[in-house]
Design a protein that fits this description.
Helix 7 packs across helix 8. Helices cover 27% and strands 24% of the residues. The protein is an alpha/beta fold. The protein folds into 3 domains: 51 residues, no CATH class; 201 residues, Rossmann fold; 173 residues, Ribosomal Protein S5, domain 2. The strands form 6 sheets. It has a 9-stranded mixed sheet with strand order 8-7-9-10-6-11-12-13-14, with helices on both faces. Strands 15-16-18-17 form a 4-stranded mixed sheet. A 3-stranded antiparallel sheet has the order 3-2-4, with no helix packed on it.
Length: 457
């Protein structure tokens, strides 16, 4: 192989994305990360002309139709919600990255998964780089995750972790966390871009070579992205994000990347005093327990992965005593609520500019999809007119700036789940316009109230 080199200039390289520059800068010009541009060990201004390599007959490219399909064999972890997110279970040799906010319950979940896998007579190695073995043992005792086939070690050095893998010969390895492990031959402190990249690459190579599935915990930055170089997410096979509000016990796992399955599945969990518990049917977690309906409430069906969940939207309208009316939201997107309020005032003649508007969801769930626009609009209109909507009514649909109601994705699945849960009336895109939807909702409200009055009489 002949290589022709033309020297231009020595330069600097971004450790995050590989962007090069002639002189040093504090911020990468491609990925806009600070402090990642370092002096390259080699000249980055070389252009290379590489002669083509001769390919053997065994390695020559073949038509895609001639490629034999290999069946992926999975084994279950014993945690159905976690297996759902992974696409049915763990694939041998796969590398899974679980990220999430501090204190959300990542270590508790993985310790629960480790104990359930150990209960199936599979050896599990739990390498904790942030806690001592006694701390992990105390948590396992509190959550009932003790098992003799679950091995613990507290190591921060990559070579020591690989040595533990050689000694224990596990069938599942958990590293908590990858940002706390360091590579002795790489300069920099643990958690730096070069360290994280080297540690993740070495652990991935061990998992692939030996066919051992590997679970890694990843830290997140203040904006919610995985800490470290972006290449970390490219190296692994599955990227899952563990999310939830510390003020509520509900937790969700979402798959952002999955080479072996879909990325539209969501696992639902609940933090308890005894650890973390699966919630296979979270349908009743986001509805209020009022004995009788009150104005300003409307139920919608939101999609969490492939699940349709009922969520109650509540609104409160009060006269404003300030020059600028307040708009306070919780669990919904503020800009979308502002748009819906403008459409209500312009297209449905509901005056809201001189009122303080408060919109919230029940149960701490966050709803950001446009399919819940109609429920927000009906809840606000119900609070403004002080008219109660029927408890058996569900609103599903996206509202345009013209006041038209568009069909939400997976509309049939939402309607079917609403019917299964006992909701008898669905107002959706068949109403076509917001004014028509309001007319239908309040006509049902009037008939319901009249029936209730007759029952009392």
């Amino acid at each position: 192989m002949t290589i022709t080199k033309k020297r231009l200039h020595p330069g600097h390289r971004c450790t995050e994305c590989g962007w090069t520059t002639v002189k040093w800068v504090g911020r990468c010009g491609a990925c806009h990360q600070w402090g990642t541009v370092l002096s390259a060990p080699e000249n980055t201004g070389f252009t290379q002309m590489i002669a083509p390599q001769r390919i053997s007959d065994e390695k020559i490219a073949r038509p895609i139709t001639a490629i034999q399909v290999e069946t992926v064999e999975r084994w279950c972890t014993g945690n159905d919600e976690f297996d759902r997110v992974l696409g049915g279970g763990i694939v041998p040799g796969s590398v899974i990255l679980l990220s999430g906010e501090p204190g959300v319950g990542k270590s508790t979940l993985l310790l629960e998964v480790a104990s359930r896998v150990a209960a199936t007579r599979r050896r599990v190695l739990y390498a904790s780089a942030e806690e001592s073995v006694s701390q992990v043992r105390l948590r396992a005792q509190r959550t009932g995750a003790l098992h003799p086939d679950l091995f613990l070690t507290a190591e921060t050095n990559l070579a020591a972790i690989v040595g533990q893998i050689n000694a224990v010969e596990p069938e599942l390895v958990i590293v908590d966390s990858v940002q706390a492990v360091s590579h002795s031959s790489i300069e920099g402190i643990a958690g730096g871009p070069s360290q994280v990249r080297a540690v993740a690459s070495a652990l991935t190579r061990v998992a692939k070579d030996r066919g051992i599935p590997l679970l890694m915990v990843g830290h997140v930055t203040k904006d919610g992205t995985v800490a470290g170089p972006r290449v970390l997410e490219h190296l692994v096979d599955v990227v899952c994000h563990f999310e939830g509000d510390r003020q509520t016990p509900l937790r969700f796992i979402r798959s952002h990347k999955n080479r072996f399955g879909p990325t539209d599945e969501v696992g639902c969990f609940e933090m308890t005093g005894d650890g973390i518990a699966e919630v296979p049917d979270p349908s009743g977690l986001f509805l209020s327990r009022a004995e009788r309906p009150v104005n300003g409430t409307c139920v919608t069906m939101t999609m969490e992965g492939k699940r349709a969940l009922p969520v109650e939207v509540q609104a409160l309208i009060v006269p404003s005593h300030t020059p600028q009316a307040r708009r306070v939201v919780n669990g919904v997107d503020s800009s979308r609520v502002a748009m819906i309020l403008a459409v209500l005032e312009r297209r449905a003649q509901i005056l809201l500019s001189n009122c303080d508007v408060y919109v919230s969801t029940v149960g701490g769930i966050r709803v950001v999809e446009p399919g819940c626009d109609l429920a927000i609009a009906l809840a606000v209109a119900s609070a403004s007119r002080e008219k109660t909507l029927p408890a058996t009514l569900v609103a599903i649909g996206e509202i345009s700036l013209a006041g038209e109601i568009r069909t939400a994705h997976s509309a049939d699945g939402r309607s079917s789940e609403a019917e299964r849960l006992g909701f008898t009336t669905v107002i959706d895109s068949t109403a076509r316009h917001l004014r028509e939807a309001l007319h239908q909702a309040f006509a049902l409200s009037a008939s319901t109230n009249e029936s209730a009055t007759n029952d009392i009489a």
